[in-house]
Amino acid sequence: MTTTSLAQAPVLIEMPPIDWAASAPLWIVFTGACVSVLLEAFLPRHQRWPVQVLATGLTLVAALVALAGYALSGPGPVLTFGTALAVDGPSLFLWGTLIVLAIPSLLLLADRSVEPGGVFVASAAERAAARNGGGGSGPGGPPEHVDRSYGAPDETPTMQTEPFPFVLFALGGMMAFVAANDLLTMFIALEVLSLPLYLLCGLARRRRLLSQEAAVKYFLLGAFASAFFLYGIALVYGYAGSVSLREISEAAAGTLASDTLLFAGLALLLVGLLFKGSVAPFHTWTPDVYQGAPTPVTAFMAACTKVAAFGAIARVLHVAFGSTVWEWRGVLWVVAVVSMVVGAVLGLTQTDVKRMIAYSSIAHAGFLMLGAMALTPDGIAGLMFYLVAYGFTTVAVFGVISLVRGPDGEAGHLSQWAGLAKRSPLVAGIMTFLLLALAGIPLTSGFTAKFAVFSAALADGMAPLVVIALVASAVAAFFYLRVVVLMYFSEPAEDGPTVVVPGAFTTVAITLGTLATLVLGILPTPVLDWAASGTFAG
Amino acid sequence: MIDPIVPGSGGNPLLIVLLLVPVVGALVMYPLRRNTSAAKAVAMATALLEFVLVVVAWSLYSIPAAEAGTRFQLEFSLPWIPAFGTHLAFGVDGIALAMIALTAFLVPGLMLFAWAEKLPEGRSAAGYFALLLATEATLVGVFAATDVFLFYVFFEAMLVPMYFLIGRFGGPKRQYAAVKFFLYSLLGGLIMLASLIGLYVTSAEQLGRGTFTWAELQSIAAGVPTSTQIWLFLGFFIAFAIKAPLVPFHTWLPDAGAEAPIVGAVLLVGVLDKVGTFGFLRYLLPLFPQASQVMAPLVLVLAVAGIIYAALLAVGQTDMGRFVAYTSVAHFGFIALGVFAFSSQAFAGATLYMVNHGLSTGMLFVMVGVLISRGGSRLIADYGGVAKLAPVMAGCLLLAGMSSLALPGTNSFVSEFLVLLGSFPNEPVFTIIATIGIIFAALYVLWFYQRTMQGPVRGSAVIAALERGGAGGPGSMIDPVVAAERKGTGFPDLTGREIGVLAPLIVAIVVLGFYPAPVLDLINPSVTATMAELGLPDPVPAGGIVR
């Protein structure tokens, strides 16, 4: 069809058959994102925030309902949009994970009580007004600028509402990323999820330079990673003559041709994927971006991007490169060890709480690599359970971080957390619980997740890696513990930060994350069973 | 014989109740945190209720059934995480029940001791008592679990309340000690987790499905290749050796023991560390029988080295808390010797030693706490001649010390004698070396007693206390007669409350010294069963000599 001569005009490109029910969550999210853009264009400024929050929330709920309706009907694996998307057990599970994790992230994002007016920078017009009139963003501003600010004059200042469509687009991209059945679809999904994230990183209301630096760094390195990924696709296509994951696997198993192109291609593909998953040695952006981005965006990135990246890594390794596992596993062993060691050791030296969590995420990425490398049903199930557990804990951790504030925004420096338990025992208690979950103490989801992943890895012949991972866990526990020590055993500083009483949105987000951490630690069976219910199709 | 219950089928809920009562008590402390006296009363009531329930459990435990071959009693089991093959499975044998009883016996007394303790600034008594109850709950869980996964969960979870107990209520270097304690234990626990996962994978290979049920794992233990067993053994052993602690994994204990508040130190050294030696008997020997035999010489070397080395270090200590901690390391060497000598008599001795050491070290720590409450200093050199001022206190300290050095007539003599007697047939050399440790024990206890209690009244802490009480002027020596006359003014003898704390301990120490049969009868069937699981001939049957 496409190989026919160009002279034979007109070439008809037929619409591939689409399984609307199976792909419903995906197109609901993308439709919601487009509607959200339109709302942004047509609504008057003061109505945008409530309408956008409502629209985004409804989109997520609708996508979740569609997903639940489809998943509960017990479908088999489906290839749709031609063979571009694979809606199989892992896809459905990861979609569910992404949507459910997006809800607390969105709540943090939409909150305007913790940081008056929201975490995002005010509009350009408002900032211009602020520059000209020395205010203008609220009751105290000169009257001639009041009409240019968001909200009615007697309301608190508000924020830009572009983040809402950004989040939906990024979420849609992530969902397409984990379900992509060929490398080109995967690349497009990668771009769709990345571009909104680059923008979101640069939108912090406070510490503008740090935020912009983060955005630029993330964008430049991300662009490089995308280029590597694309080049990897080209090499693999050169080897297999196809970008379909299944056909790559068949080509690799069935020929005696030189493997050089295949493995060079895999290496470049992995650079792109490991970059997204912030696996060392492709992690260098992580601390800067986590620190500079507005905290709710960091929460969204830390939880959802991790899910998307590891979902895609697992799919590529399982479906396309499952037949050549013995060739590449040694290299990924090294990557996993480097990631665990870098995360655990450099995390020890951090003094900023967000950077510390960033290094913790690098160490966790190393643990996740164990699950991604274990090419067994238990490996997939363990990996996906780990992603859910880690996502909820991380969102809640960033929610708590956003509450501890000094005079100029969040109290990032660890020393400012001294004696927090005295000032706010509940917040300190929740943070302790979440940190223990990150450290993997039993009765938290972190332990169950580690157990699931490590037992799968051990059963698949990775005993030395499991031992290294456990030692790295012990090292990492030290820096989590340091925060606990500071909060409980140190005396609070005189001019220390205050703990903001959060509004309903942040409260709900933190509660959701904390409860999930507890429930997945004590009664993980339903989620474990769902995670184990299907394997990759394609 | 009572048949073991099918995993996941329910059973006797008493052990669950034993676990939940202190948990509920600890949670109730939160709403009561502003009302200190109510919080203390509720905590004490909870601890007493727990003790009563343990007495009920003891009375329900059937020794004839245990002798007939029932491994666990009062069993309870519900499925927990089917994907991992874990159960919420509880059950006790005689050893576990003895340890639970020791815990429940100590906690009310410790609460009484902590009743009027001066806490660091900004700390509430409700939090203090809540942590004590939480520690008690995790200890009940760790001893009662019959599912290895569940055991691991409690093994790690019990770090958390103890960590806060040390870090929030301890001495001047408490942060350092708490973090060191936590990291050491966590490292051991994570190494054990690797072995735990390995055990699960091995069971999946042997049975076709992974399991954590102790009885099932024990039934396949003999079929696991020795090389696999050795790796799995090492993971568990390191965790237990850190917990117990054996030399060279012991360095956290002197810090933690010295910096923890007295009640925390008693629970830590008296009960929580016994989880390590309990783990030797319950997990290492039955689950890795061949590996235990292969590795026994290594463990015995560490045990005997600990007996001598820690005793020598105890002689040289200047801090009273560290002194007691080092004596404990030496005693843990005796327990480990008894466990790895592989005779049921030595097992019985080691188990009895665990109980007795909890009592004697508990009393020793309490006496140290009493001294510190009078003088404010933790240093041995700051005290002297206390016997002239507070003879009852000195007498109690002497009894605690005599129990610690295993004087005949005190509880520890029976256990130490049993360990040495039971170990001799299999390990004569190690036993003879360990016997030398007894001499050092006499040295460190008597010298400690002599420096602090005997001779003229002296020592900066004592003098300062007397001066605060208006007894004497400046000067490093006080005339004994004057001091005796002014007794009670600055350095009062034991108060009624302190006697209330000590009386049950004294009774237990003396009674078990003359009549250890109740405890021995409880544990003997279980140690015989452990011997059978190990699969070695028994050179000296338990109860053969001492009944």
UniProtKB/TrEMBL annotation, chain A:
GO terms for molecular function: NADH dehydrogenase (quinone) (non-electrogenic) activity; NADH dehydrogenase (ubiquinone) activity; quinone binding. The keyword tRNA processing does not apply. One of its GO terms (biological process) is ATP synthesis coupled electron transport. It catalyses: a quinone + NADH + 5 H(+)(in) = a quinol + NAD(+) + 4 H(+)(out). Keywords: Cell membrane, Membrane, NAD, Quinone, Translocase, Transmembrane, Transmembrane helix, Transport. This is NADH-quinone oxidoreductase subunit N. GO terms for cellular component: endomembrane system; plasma membrane. It is found in: Cell membrane; Endomembrane system; Membrane. NDH-1 shuttles electrons from NADH, via FMN and iron-sulfur (Fe-S) centers, to quinones in the respiratory chain. The immediate electron acceptor for the enzyme in this species is believed to be a menaquinone. Couples the redox reaction to proton translocation (for every two electrons transferred, four hydrogen ions are translocated across the cytoplasmic membrane), and thus conserves the redox energy in a proton gradient. NDH-1 is composed of 14 different subunits. Subunits NuoA, H, J, K, L, M, N constitute the membrane sector of the complex.
Automatic annotation (TrEMBL), chain B:
It is a multi-pass membrane protein. Keywords: Membrane, Transmembrane, Transmembrane helix. GO terms for biological process: ATP synthesis coupled electron transport; electron transport coupled proton transport. It comes from the Bacteria. It is found in: Endomembrane system; Membrane. Its main location: membrane. The chain crosses the membrane at residues 12-30, 42-61, 81-113, 125-143, 149-169, 181-200, 220-242, 262-283, 295-316, 323-342, 354-373, 385-409, 429-449, 499-517. Residues 145-438 form the NADH:quinone oxidoreductase/Mrp antiporter transmembrane domain. GO terms for molecular function: NADH dehydrogenase (ubiquinone) activity; NADH dehydrogenase activity; ubiquinone binding. InterPro entries: NADH_Q_OxRdtase_chainM/4, NADH_UbQ_OxRdtase, ND/Mrp_TM. GO terms for cellular component: endomembrane system; membrane. PANTHER family: NADH-UBIQUINONE OXIDOREDUCTASE CHAIN 4. Belongs to the complex I subunit 4 family. This is NADH dehydrogenase subunit M. It comes from Pseudonocardia ammonioxydans. The lineage of its organism: Bacteria, Bacillati, Actinomycetota, Actinomycetes, Pseudonocardiales.
